[in-house]
Amino acid sequence: MSDSSGIKDMKAWLEGERSGLSLALNTARGGARIAETLGVLGRQGLGWLLGNRPPVPALLRTTFESLGTTYIKLGQFIASSPSIFPEEYVEEFQRCLDRTPPLPFHYIRETIEQELGQPLEQLYQFVDPKPLASASIAQVHSAKLKNGQDVVIKVQRPGVRNVLLTDFNFLYLAARITERLAPGLSKSAISGVIEELQAGMLEECDFIKEAGNLKAFNAFLRDTGNTSAIAPEPVMSHTTGKVLTMERFFGVPLTDMNVLKKYTDDPAQTLISALNTWFSSLMLCDFFHADVHAGNLMLLEDGRVGFIDFGIVGRIRREAWDGMAKFFDAIGRGDIRQMAEAMAVIGMTREEVDVDALTRDIESLQGALGQVDPSALIQADRNDKEVNRLLMDLVKIGEGHGIRFPREFALLLKQFLYFDRYVQVLAPEMDMFSDNRLDMFGGADELPGGLLH
Ligand SMILES: Nc1ncnc2c1ncn2[C@@H]1O[C@H](COP(=O)(O)OP(=O)(O)OP(=O)(O)O)[C@@H](O)[C@H]1O
């Protein structure tokens, strides 16, 4: 009895030592990362003081690119959030590229072997040391399993999680200081954005979750009899939190119009299949793919559309869906009271919302509301400043009543922006809201509450 408790004590002590050690190690790494961040900021600031003065948005963009992962993602968030950031920043940050120099192959080998617990040669017949792609979170290599199946391996860069955590703590601190210095700034806007981004990026670092999303998406396609799209099936025996092995797709990304034209004489139809699948997933899948830029869609050799990269997904609670439908319906009919009720359902609040007071506040926007067409509201085109301003005003009024809009709302809006952009490239003649090949109701008779009707 005393022996086993002695062993337990020893184990607890060892655990304590180990966690103390890893805490110290992480603190040291965190310190080094903060020093690195300050170094980059200092160099850029010095350059600026010494007379090399590009416009501030450009300076910020190059600074973000030098700072890596977290800031590149932050930059991409700015690029896709015209309703939050000024236009010149949105435009500049659209140039913020997530291209990172490839990691030498021995890091990839080490991560795979550490994660899967076997030498690389026992796990795969072949792994191409030259990466297919290299981004800030992961690097992708093509490979062959022992049974001859073609796969790709997505390998997380070493230390990414720690860098993210340190960067976010640093950003949070900087946001708090800024809030102190400029109390006029909307607190929930800054810290809210940082919180949303952190949640999203940490989720992107869990490849077991991503593999689960791939499987669930394919199950949704099977269940709905959708044969026009497919996601790569993960190979679970070769997958961990940091290594994702999945079926390899052969085809071309939807980014390059000229290449695409060689594979199909109707690129617009390919886009329509992709959009229809996505709309139907909004209603009929547990989640929606929240990062469908053209680089994450492929036209496969067999004509189907391949959806890749399920690192970021959004989920919409049933009540939030109903609330959103009610909200758009109310805008269409100019019914302010119903708008207020719907906002209270969509937003997450702890306290009871005073719907009467909210109605009165929204009424103050009535002039602007009357001029908005509900379909334009959903598109939230970055050129449509009126719509963006109105959305921002509504968000602000909601915040004043303790309503915080869920992350899904932003993800959904961002997705519509992406679509809008590549519809312009791939099918400029197509009008997303009147083309009858598009099925926005995703196979359902219509969205709940008549959304978009
Ligand atoms: N199953 C697959 N079959 C073929 N190529 C793939 C597959 N998965 C990924 N790729 C290639 O690797 C690239 C990066 O993959 P993925 O988008 O999953 O990684 P990521 O690190 O999230 O990149 P990004 O941040 O650019 O979206 C893809 O654009 C594609 O070229």
Automatic annotation (TrEMBL):
Xref: InterPro entries: ABC1_dom, Kinase-like_dom_sf, Mito_struct-func_regulator
Leader peptide range in chain numbering: none
Pfam families attached to this UniProt entry: ABC1
Record domain ABC1 atypical kinase-like: where: 97-342
Domain of life assignment: Bacteria
Alphabetical list of PANTHER family matching this protein: ABC1 FAMILY PROTEIN (PTHR43173), OS07G0227800 PROTEIN (PTHR43173:SF22)
Name this protein carries in UniProt: ABC1 family protein
